[in-house]
Amino acid sequence: MFVNTLEPRFLETDALGHINNTVLPMWFEASRDPLFRLFSPDMDVKNWKLILASFNINFHAETHYGTSVEIKTYINRIGNSSFDVYQECWQNGIKTVSGISTMVHFCHSEKKSIALTVAQIELMKEHLFEQ
Amino acid sequence: MFVNTLEPRFLETDALGHINNTVLPMWFEASRDPLFRLFSPDMDVKNWKLILASFNINFHAETHYGTSVEIKTYINRIGNSSFDVYQECWQNGIKTVSGISTMVHFCHSEKKSIALTVAQIELMKEHLFEQ
Amino acid sequence: MFVNTLEPRFLETDALGHINNTVLPMWFEASRDPLFRLFSPDMDVKNWKLILASFNINFHAETHYGTSVEIKTYINRIGNSSFDVYQECWQNGIKTVSGISTMVHFCHSEKKSIALTVAQIELMKEHLFEQ
Amino acid sequence: MFVNTLEPRFLETDALGHINNTVLPMWFEASRDPLFRLFSPDMDVKNWKLILASFNINFHAETHYGTSVEIKTYINRIGNSSFDVYQECWQNGIKTVSGISTMVHFCHSEKKSIALTVAQIELMKEHLFEQ
C-alpha cells in the first residue's frame, strides 16, 4: 500500500459545499505517482510507460474542505501487460470514495502494449490489496 | 440524446500531448447540464436534487487539442430513485471515450433518496439509449 | 475583438456558491485560442510559438453557474517580441472580471524571444482595444 | 512566512511538457489556507470572511512535474479592510513564479467590506515580507 496525504483545496469544493466529484480522479492520479516512478524512475514524461484504459469511482460519503484526506493505493490485479489499481479516499476515519483504474504498460512510439517484466511484477506484488 | 459541443482547452492537455484523462469526468458533468435543468429548472444550487453515486470511464482513443469534441448524453437505465447516464465523447468521427454515471434523486436537507416522479421519468424516456 | 461564449461548469463553482476565482485564467486562456491559431495555424503543440510572461486579473462582480458568459479578447499593446491581451468576462450584461496577459513570441528550441513579424502585427492590429 | 510543500500533479502539466500557467493561481490559493484559517478558524465555508479582489502572477522560469515545489506566502500590505499577499513558487532552488493577491475582509450576507481587527493585523504582521 502507498499512502498519500493531501489537503483538499478550497477551489476543489463546489456550490453544494463539499468536494466536487470530478476532483477524485485527480487525487487518485496524483496518488499513483509511486507507480509512475516504478515504471519511469527518472519521471521523464518523454519516456512514459503507462496509459490509463479505464477507471471507475464510487462515492460513499461527502468529502470536505478543511481536513486532510489520506489516499490509499493498492495493486489488486496483475495481468500480462496491464494491472488494476485500487484506491480509497479516507477523511476523519471514514472511507468517502473508492475506485479502480486499469493501467496498461505501453510503448508510446509503437502505440502498443508491452508485457510487464518480472521485476515490475515483483515490485507491484509488495503492494497487493488483501481483504 | 443531448449533444454538447466543446472546444478542448490547451490547459486540458498534459505532457503526453493529448487531453488528460481526468478532464473527461469534467466534460461529462458539464454535458449533464440538461439533466440538472430537468430536476432543478431554475438551476438554483441551493435547491439541488441530484447526487452522483458512481461513474466509470473507458478510454478508446486519444482526444486532442485543436479540434472540437461532441459529447453525446443518453439515459440508459431508469430505476426507482436513481438512473444511469451513458455518455460518449466523439472527435473527428472517432468515439474516443465513453462512460456511465449513476445519479440519485436526492433530498440534501434530509440526506435521503427520493422516488423519481412520473413526469421526470417521462422526460428522461425521450433520451433513452437504444443500441 | 474575439468573442467566446462559454457555459460555466457546475464543477467550476466553489462552496461560496459562485465561480471560483482560479477558473478565470482558464476561461481566458481558452479564449486566446484564436491568437494561438494566428501564431501556430496548424495548432501543433510541438511547434508552439507563444509563452505567457505574466497575467493579472481583477474581479468586479460574482460570476454564476446557470447562465452563459461572454469572454471578449482584445490586443492592447504590441511590442517588439511581446504583446498584451486584454480580456473581459461578461454575464447578464455585467462585466464581472477583466484581465491582462503578457505573451511573448518565443522559440522553444532555442529558449529565446523572437521579433513579431509584420504579418503578425497587422493581424493583431485588427483586434486592438479602443476605449 | 508560511511555507507549503506541494507535489506537482501529472495532470497539471500541459502539452509543452511543464506545469500549465493556470495551475499557479490554484497552488497559491491552496497555500493561503493559513490565512483563511486566521479569519475563519473553524474553516466553515458558510461563515467565510475573505474575498479576492485581484491577483497578478509573474512567470520567471518553467515549473516541472517530478520534483516538489515550495510555496512561500507573505503579507506585504495591510490596509484598512484589505491586504496584499505576496507568494513565490520555488523548485530546485529556483524561484519559478511569483504573485500578489489582494484580499478583502468581507461580510457575505451584507455584501460589504469590514475593517480588519487589531488582532487580525497583529497576526498578519508576523508574516510580513521584508526584502
Order of helices and strands of chain A: EHHEEEEEH
Oligomeric description of these chains = homotetramer
What structural class do helix, strand and pairing data of chain A support? alpha+beta
* Mean model confidence by pLDDT of chain A: 95
Report low-confidence residues of chain A grouped into runs of 5 or more. none
Biggest sheet descriptor of chain A: 6 strands, antiparallel
Q: Supply the number of helical segments of chain A.
A: 3
In a few lines, what is going on in this structure?
The structure is a homotetramer of 131-residue chains. The first copy, chain A, has 131 residues and is of the alpha+beta class. Chain A is built from three helices and six strands.
Structure description:
Four copies of one chain form a homotetramer. Chain A contains three helices and six strands. In chain A, a hairpin with a 2-residue loop joins strand 4 (82-91) and strand 5 (94-107). Chain A is an alpha+beta fold. At the A-B interface, helix 1 and strand 2 of A face helix 1 and strand 2 of B. Strand 2 (50-59) of chain C pairs antiparallel with strand 2 of chain D, so a sheet runs across the interface.
